[in-house]
Amino acid sequence: MAEKKEEDNSLTDAILTKYGNMESGLHDMGKVQVYFSAPAKKIQSSKDDTMDLKLPRILVLNRYKIRNAGNEERLAELCKSVTELDLAENALDNWKEILKIAGQLPRLEFFNLSSNPLHLATPLATPLATTSSLVNMENIQRLVLNNTKLHWESIHSLLTVMQRLKELHLSLNEFSSVSSGDCTHDNLKLLQFNNNQVKEWEDVKKLGAMFPGLETLILMANPISRLGASPGEAFPNLKVVCLSETLVESWDELDKLNEFPSLKEALVKGIPLLCVTGKGDKAEKQIRQLAVARLGKLESLNRSVITEPEREQAERLFIRKFRHSDVRPARYDELIAKHGHIQELAKVDLTPRTTFNCKITYDDSSYDIIVNVKDNVRQLNKQIRAIVGLPTNKFRTYFSSTDPTHLNNNEWLRYPNRFLHNYKIGDGDIFDIGPA
């Protein structure tokens, strides 16, 4: 049963509600260590007979309707060792209260404010007024602001004081454009920007200008169809890009990933260009091979490592595919320089044979006959009747194989409805005709 949450409006009260009755700590359960984020130990009694708690370093307080910081002195005492604070899905709509909270947590490194109504908050000014809370915000390395619909002004203000920030999550905020800030933030390595409404790569390039040290960029489910001119210039250090569920539908656009100087991994699932839904595993494999051949710098595609044998096979397939094309991708000449002119694959017909050249022996005579193994014994006997001139009820047909492994030579074909393929007939086999 889910834990019942009180109608708390302050973070201080929410902490006491959730963490006031249990003990926290790292517990060893055999080979598995389980961290119980359940609060803790009574250290001493205060004058008002409340408890001082030793809290875990990670606090998760989702859906507590938290609207403000509460007693700041009390909050500072409770949270002096807290490094991660998850306040997703609360009612925080005032930056002043959020700054108060951050100001009381001197060790805070991770701060999750997702799904708080920050669009209702007055945007933060830039630069922020100097306060004691800003000192603690400098320690934050991971900030999550998903589904808050906040203003770009507030983002830029926060970034001016979070110079150690390494991860920023801005998904589900309905951004249709990107507002450039006045400062760059070299330490940011990961930006999660999926499920927004950005269409133009010029806006994406603004993200690169703000975060020149970016190594991972998640753009999943943005309506981007074109990467524009020189898309990699703004991302000199980008190693991983996710364009899954965007609207890229042209090989020319996907080829532009080759222009990112440091790119090693790409995720492009669910884009129109590579959609092979309902076409089978073979089609899916072929479309991956074409992507691997085109994107020569990649080491991983869609979370699957590209091995050297896979790469070579894909590149050779690519050469064969475009060998006779009037218009060839630029990658074709690069691969010709690498592999040379590759011979066409031999065309091998693997269709099972159905006809064989056999012989009939009758009355010291021998006749050639072409036997179709799709026929049955009755149909074979009709062929023989036309050759030897006897009614089918006046003779019997005996089968002998030239294959030395065949076990039943001189076998009477007594079952008229049995199909001939059951007898493993081959070229040179003999049908001997005897009296009925």
TrEMBL record:
InterPro entries: LRR_dom_sf, Ubiquitin-like_domsf
Transmembrane feature ranges: none
Top-level taxon of the source organism: Eukaryota
Pfam family, one: LRR_9
Intracellular or extracellular location(s): Cytoplasm
GO terms under cellular component: cytoplasm
Key words of the record: Cytoplasm, Leucine-rich repeat, Repeat
Protein name according to UniProt: Tubulin-specific chaperone cofactor E-like protein
Organism name: Strongylocentrotus purpuratus
